[in-house]
Amino acid sequence: MRLTFVLRSGTTLVEFLLFLGLLAFVSTALVFMLLATEDTRVRQGSIAEFEQHGAKTVQLFSRSIHNAERILSPSAGATGAILALQMRLENEYATVFAKSSTGNLIMVQKRTVDYVLPENVIMKNLVFRNVSGSVSKSMTFSFDLETIIPLPKPITYTKHFDGSALLPQDRTYESGGCSGCSAPACTSHDYKWPYCQSGVCKTGSGAISC
């Protein structure tokens, strides 16, 4: 009688444990790679949106200055944190820009007060410089914007922006339909600006601290 032995292939305990270890390593690496990819996507998206706010603010300042009839404040050669512009249309006169106490950008047109930036963007170091000479009338401006990028470990991102704009020389002054209105002024930390209502000069206040 002849006995026949059949060898069956199988997995030893050591091989099985090595397989589990390799699987755990690959799974962990994949998780970290996916998290890193998501962090990169969030960071890049947040920065792109943030820089759009900066570019739009530069465009807003440049366009408003270019469309203005006169720079009311700061005066020629002076620097200030508040910009006041004399505009042609009644509903835009005066146009005033300033930073709020919470770091938002305030834009006033006549008596309408708007906050330009979203809550997650903070403005700092807002400076307007009136560089007008005897011939040309122009302004330069600069500011910093700051935001918190919402990552597992939040990142503070800051960027500096600046620009300039020239006022046209061949412009007829209409002052919103009024003439001889008082100049902007700071009284007891309350900024007051002129506006026109049906041909009558009025004074706006209460929106900007100075």
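the 2nd protein, sequnce then structure:
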Amino acid sequence: MGKRDQILIDLLERSGPKLHTLLLRLTLHEHTAEDLMQELFCRLCRIEDLSKINHLEAYARRAAVHLAYDWLRDRKRNPLSLSESGIDPVSPTLSVRPEIQDRLCQILDAAARLEGLTWDCFVMRYIEQMKHDEIAARLGKTPQQVRGLCSRAVRKIREMVTEKQRGSSYKEAAHG
């Protein structure tokens, strides 16, 4: 086994469960989280020189989030229901009422429009459920700065979701 393979195995052992949990929280589907984990590690295997990546764990986390958001966007464009697709629905331990799942999708869609550190802080705090101190250490910021970025992220998401709901309410009233 080569050095590159050992790096990937170490990454999987060290960060695999955290990455899987992250994908599960973003997609709310066990089978999708597993598929995205496999896709993530296939993509990592295709990178020729892993030593060029400064923080492989952070790179893998960010790539996992991007894969999940790509899946969510694709699902939005192609809204084939799980029952129509022949895929088993979410496992019983992850059952989520449809209205809550719709709300979560709205929040994740709004979060996908955040940029830079605001997006990073939102994902680390509210999806990965990291503490402010941990996020600050990873980003080279103070905990107070992280709290401010998290607060800004929540405010922006709330504004985007509210704006979208108002827009759909006006459309329903106009057509109703």
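Confidence is low (pLDDT under 50) at residues 80-93. The domain at 1-94 is CATH 1.10.1740 (Rna Polymerase Sigma Factor; Chain: A).
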